[in-house]
Specification:
This protein is α/β, with parallel strands linked by helices and 398 residues long. Helices cover 39% and strands 17% of the residues. The strands form 3 sheets. The chain has a 7-stranded mixed β-sheet with strand order 4-10-9-8-7-5-6, with helices on both faces.
């Protein structure tokens, strides 16, 4: 069936929760996608930082195929070997002692919110339940995570929001400290804001945040849903900032494209969850855990962390060269392959022109082009994307 026919069916049967582009991907390999009409695209969005190993990485595909032939799902009332192995992998490579598995980033953040409130209730009483988050943050689409998110465009239409969230400017430790009250129980931040425009903190910011949390007895929660799993050149982004959180959430890239989320925590806080306090029917089932195990091992075995750092520097350098040619490019910023190009003009037209020329791009915060390609992207693929983007920029500036 051709793309036009698929789009017609989509318009008839799918709810309009996304402003979908007229692209119908049917096959992927590495950094490339092909649509229903056979058109090829260079993918510099990577499923929004999901496909860190590219599309259909052979090791992830094999893990899914092998596991699907043995056991796809069983209840969390039982011990699941793949889940146990994945939890051990994640904890042994991070600060954490325990893991909770779910299906998405929003669910992982929901679990972190519940854990913070439950721990604080157990240790300090029911009046400590408020959580400080950042303006321009994005934590998910559930009612709790929408309330935690610091963007009005995400929150509108859903009043009354869940009570107990305070938003302060990102990268402003003084504002955060001023917002702490006797009712505060936690601080939840993205190490690098993705949906907010690829915002990177100043040196020392997170050390101050950690100090504030320690001084006031607050949990420090890092939302690494978008930046975790090698995206920044470290397995976890917190490793860049010389700060250890108490709780961390992961999702997007954890299982190479299969739907999974996890909340990791130190034992001190994890013990607040006991049977009956939280759960997830599909969370950590054998199929997705097998994919996640294969993903982590591939990142390690193929040296993708060092490679991401190197190829990210190359991409930033090429984008900066491009930016020097055009007056509407304000800044290029990023760590690893989490990169934003700030513009003085809206970026939507650039994205659609990119689609027409075979490059999948993304704009966030209206004026920031976001580049989150697979970690396996090559210099040749970057050069091709830059060449196409150069042609688009030349048209836009005219």
């Amino acid at each position: 069936m051709k793309s036009e026919q698929w789009i017609e069916k989509s318009d008839k049967y799918i709810m309009k929760t996304y402003g979908r582009y007229p692209i119908v991907p049917v096959r992927g390999e590495g950094c490339r996608l092909w649509d229903a009409d056979g058109k090829e695209y260079l993918d510099f969005l990577g499923g929004v930082a999901v496909n860190n190993l590219g599309h259909c990485h052979p090791k992830v595909v094999k893990a899914l195929q092998d596991q699907a032939a043995q056991l796809i799902h069983c209840s969390n009332y039982y011990q699941i070997p793949q889940q146990i192995e994945l939890a051990e992998l994640l904890c042994s490579h991070s600060f954490a002692d325990k893991a909770f598995f779910c299906n998405s980033g929003a669910e992982a953040n929901e679990a972190a919110i519940k854990l913070a409130r439950k721990y604080s209730r157990d240790t300090s009483g029911p009046e400590r339940y408020e959580i400080i988050t950042a303006a321009e943050s994005f934590h998910g689409r559930t009612m709790a995570t929408v309330s935690a998110t610091g963007q009005e465009k995400v929150q509108r239409f859903f009043d009354p929001l869940l009570h107990g969230f305070t938003h302060v400017p990102f990268n402003d430790a003084a504002a955060l400290e001023a917002a702490v009250t006797p009712n505060t129980c936690a601080v939840m931040l993205e190490p690098i804001q993705g949906e907010g425009g690829v915002n990177i903190p100043s040196p020392g910011y997170f050390q101050e945040v950690r100090r504030i949390c320690d001084q006031h007895g607050l949990l420090l929660i890092f939302d690494e849903v978008q930046v975790g799993m090698g995206r920044t050149g470290k397995l976890f982004a917190y490793e860049h900032f010389d700060v250890i959180p108490d709780v961390m959430t992961l999702a997007k890239a954890l299982a190479g494209g299969a739907p999974i989320g996890t909340m990791l925590a130190k034992d001190k806080f994890a013990t607040a969850f006991v049977p009956g306090t939280h759960g997830s029917t599909f969370g950590g089932n054998p199929l997705v855990c097998a994919a996640a195990i294969a993903t982590i091992r591939t990142i390690q075995e193929e040296g993708l962390l060092n490679r991401t750092e190197e190829i990210g520097e190359y991409l930033v350098g090429e984008l900066e060269k491009l930016g020097e040619k055009y007056s509407f490019v304000k800044e290029v910023r990023g760590i690893g392959l989490m990169i934003g190009m700030g513009l003085s003009i809206p970026g939507a037209e650039i994205v659609t022109k990119g689609h027409a020329r075979g490059v999948l791009l993304n704009v966030t915060h209206d004026t920031v082009l976001r580049f989150v390609p697979p970690l396996i992207v090559t210099k040749q693929e970057i050069n091709k994307m830059i060449e196409i983007l150069d042609g688009i920029f030349a048209e836009v500036e005219i």
